[in-house]
Amino acid sequence: MRFNRMLLSATLVLVALVLQVSVLARLHLPGAVPDLVLLTVLALAMVYGHVSGALIGFGAGLLADLVPPADHAAGRYALVLCVIGYLAGLVKPENGQLKSATGPMAVVVAAAVGATLLYASVGALVGDTAARHVGLGSLLFTAALYDLLLAPFVVPGLMALARRSETNPLGDTNTSAKTADVSAGWLSSGTGLRIGSQRGGLRVKAAKARVARAGRIKGVKRL
């Protein structure tokens, strides 16, 4: 991953995690908690691709596993977001831009449902039956609903920010190339000092001078 990707991803994940823990989790909404971290991973994965999406998802999930008030085994949510980030990155278009909002919204719903099912499945494997007491159907419905309502305010902005961070280095390179071209043009034509032409002109002048000198010498001898 590039440095600008790592820096932007780490910053966005930290901000999303702080908002989720300090604001969204304290709303005490029925069912699931709106997953701002999941939406952040989805937005970055749909711009950076499946490899970066998996790495970002793993880091974000591991951080969520360690930040209080986490009450589950460390690495559980990291596995979930790693898989979700990888799958979301597979739908990344070639230019990193989606033509309509239908695709991202479908990805959000599928990711919310898939993350809840995968989280519950991993919990069942390690003996955590909390999802059974809450009700898996209620968790699936509320997770998809909350994330879908929150996605239009989060995903497009984060995707645009990620695309801008990707295009800035290229823009700087193009600007440098243009500056170099302008500098080369200024040196070669703007000042009127063309090195190649100047050397050729000096050679022609030197040859003419030698011919004229030889003519004068011959003229003296004739006299």
Task: Explain what this protein looks like in three dimensions.
79% of the residues lie in helices and 0% in strands. It is mostly helical. The protein has eight helices and no strands. Helix 1 runs antiparallel to helix 2, helix 1 packs parallel to helix 3 and helix 4 packs antiparallel against helix 5. The C terminus is likely disordered. The longest helix is centred in the C-terminal third of the chain and has 55 residues.
So how many helices? 8
Determine the strand fraction and express it as a percent band. Answer: under 5%
Calculate the mean pLDDT score and round it. Answer: 76
What is the chain-wise order of helices and strands?
HHHHHHHH
Distance between the termini: 87 Å
Main sheet, how many strands, which sense, barrel?
Answer: none
Radius of gyration: 33 Å
How many beta-strand runs?
0
Helix/strand structural class: mainly alpha
Q: State the share of residues found in helices, binned by percent.
A: over 70%
Low-confidence parts lasting 5 or more residues at pLDDT below 50?
169-197, 217-223
The outline comes out as elongated
